[in-house]
Amino acid sequence: MGAQAVSQVADCRAVGQWRWPNWVGWASLLLCLGGLAHPARAQELPRRAPDLDRLTQELFAEIQSDQVPYEDLYETLLQYYQTPVNLNAASREELRALLLLSETQISNLLTHREASGPLLSLYELQAVLGWDLRTIYRVLPFVTVQADDPNRARGPLWQRIKNEENNALFVRYERVLQPRKGYAAADTFQGRLTSRYLGSPDKLLVRYRVSHAHDFSLGFSAEKDAGEALAWQPKQGQYGPDFLSAHFFLQERGRLKALAVGDYQLQFGQGLLLSSGLAVGKGAETITTLRRSSVGVRPYSALLENTFFRGAAATYQLAPRWEATAFASHKSIDANLQQRADSLTQYDEFGSSLQYTGFHRTAAELADRHALQETVAGGNLGYLSHDGALALGFTAVGTHYGTPLLKRAEPYNRYEFSGQNNLALGAHYSYVWRNLLLFGEVGRTSGGGLGTLNGLLASLGPRIDAAVLIRHYDVDFHTIYGNALSENSRNINESGLYLGLKVRPVTRWELSAYFDQFWFPWLRYRVGAPSRGDDALLRLAFTPTKTSLLYAQYRVRLKPRDLSSSLGRPVPLPGQQLRHSILVYYDTQPTLRLGLRTRLQASRLRDDDHLPWRSGYALSQDASVQVARRVQLTARYAVFDADDYDTRQYLFEQDVLYVVSIPALYGQGIRTYAIAQVSFSKHLTLWLRYANTHYRHQTTVGSGLEEIQGNVRSEIKMQVRYKL
């Protein structure tokens, strides 16, 4: 890397700490740094763009998962690249939020910074205990080394926004080329449109954002999904595109630590009551992503239409060790409203379900659009000890719906939230002691439901890390914006024990594993009795060079599920679905211009001992070529074969910037795509993407309104970025 530069940095530190008279010491230090500047300029550590696709797969990607908010995670990592963390000023929580560093590495960096002063160069990271080359190369795109307050001399806010280089306007267009059933000529019944998309098959996006780390962020997004209509209907809350979002965010204004106006997210403690898109859950990274970081208020610029607050939030420093956050949000959300059908229902009108897809393409979807008013308000009081080892917090979240919620009268819905008001109170903590991190959160919601999770991360040695997490969520524990670690998609009706391990037996090799056992005290959807299950993963990774990665992963899941009545039973009975999954992945860069990625994954499952096994697999080969200084081409060829939807294979795909593509492939066929990235200038960049899925032994693709006559589905995508 830069051993000579590290040595020179160390020599300069020694000169500066020598007991010379003041003027001699400072003069010597300046001369030393002056001599360092010239060779360092030739060896300056380049801050290259991150390979977000590889990083996302390496840390978070699971074999079968459609519940992880990959888009929000992907965008969070991209924002860290565009507004990197300053290692000379970052707190423990900010370093945790990177999701890339162990607690020991974070502690060692803070100790090094306290003992030796601010880092003089990124090369100095090699001198931090526990920071190996793999860690440094992984974190480099997201960090920087600057003075403590680089914004002090940048002028007034309007001037900083005007002169900021980190700003860009994005325009994106997408379309499926084949005609789909939902866009055919409309059927009418008594003059009303039924079962057809009301808009065009084009998907459009316009987004702009300008931001600077620890200073400000300003942006807006406008999106029209395929099938949605562009309409100007102020009375229905639509002003052109179906989804509009905007935010204005300020940081570090004296005691005012953060101020958000517009759309924002909140994350405190372990996400039991408030959790943003930084939540990862169980995955290939078995240690560092287990604990959450209290990043507080964050601006929202993603396109998920149900994971944010709309209003205002502020964080204020009450005293040197105390901070308080207050927030208020009011927005219209999608819900299915119904009128009272019988005298047993206590409400004249109620919402039977909340809709989270964000699609408003048909008459039925439009009827649910923004049908329910939601008001959320609350706050957090946080304490941080002088040495940063102990952090405490207290959170309150109150939610009010304009129309009561009442779930369908199904047995599994017996303890679900009903009514208009919900109050959640909670406390969270984290404490670092030597090589141990203790963390946890406990909460209580209206009706008396309790939820808690408590964990321990331990460095058992220089090459061994371990984790333990215990969780319990009552059947009547209701949090609307909570997303702590769980097997369920929500923190309700679950208890569990998670054990994680990571071992680096020799240089370049890493073994990671977890075992998670969970219980469901009450019924669940498609599980008609209390149940339990297990989930285990084992991964072996080898990094032969700084640009290559090889890993193999095995996962086994035993999960409860009602068995089919086809087994001769009059009604479905709870059973266990057993799934085995394997994944082999190889990423290498044989030349500076060529990158290759190979991925093989397969799964095998059975719903009951008396039923046959079902299986699926996918094999893909990617190639990325820098054909010219401003032109990069990427392509994939993949084959897949899956018996049914339960054995579907999720293949993480490269896409245009800011877009995550993880299609679910089942049946038999071939999946290909190609991407061209052309940089016309430092201001203008163009992405073109074409993807095609060719199915065998099928006469139609998709179902319902998405049905295509034939055996091919093709998509095109174009995106333009203009840096102002």
How would you explain this protein's 3D organization?
It is a single chain. With 724 residues, the chain is mainly β. Among the domains are: 3-52 and 85-147, no CATH class; 589-724, no CATH class. The strands form seven sheets. The protein has a 24-stranded antiparallel barrel. A hairpin with a 2-residue loop joins strand 19 and strand 20 (436-445). Mean pLDDT is 85; it is low at 3-12 and 14-44. This is Helix-hairpin-helix domain-containing protein. InterPro entries: RuvA_2-like (IPR010994). It comes from Hymenobacter setariae.
Please give the structural blueprint.
Blueprint: H1 3-17, H2 22-43, H3 52-59, H4 70-82, E1 85-86, H5 92-97, H6 103-116, H7 133-139, E2 143-144, H8 157-163, E3 167-176, E4 187-189, E5 192-194, E6 202-212, E7 216-224, E8 231-233, E9 238-240, E10 243-253, E11 256-267, E12 296-299, E13 309-319, E14 322-333, E15 335-339, E16 349-354, H9 363-368, E17 372-384, E18 390-405, E19 419-433, E20 436-445, E21 450-461, E22 464-473, E23 494-503, E24 509-520, E25 531-542, E26 549-562, E27 574-588, E28 594-606, E29 614-628, E30 631-642, E31 649-650, E32 664-665, E33 667-679, E34 684-695, E35 700-701, E36 708-709, E37 712-722
Parallel strand pairs: 1-2
Antiparallel strand pairs: 3-6, 3-37, 4-5, 6-7, 7-10, 8-9, 10-11, 11-12, 11-13, 13-14, 14-17, 15-16, 17-18, 18-19, 19-20, 20-21, 21-22, 22-23, 23-24, 24-25, 25-26, 26-27, 27-28, 28-29, 29-30, 30-33, 31-32, 33-34, 34-37, 35-36
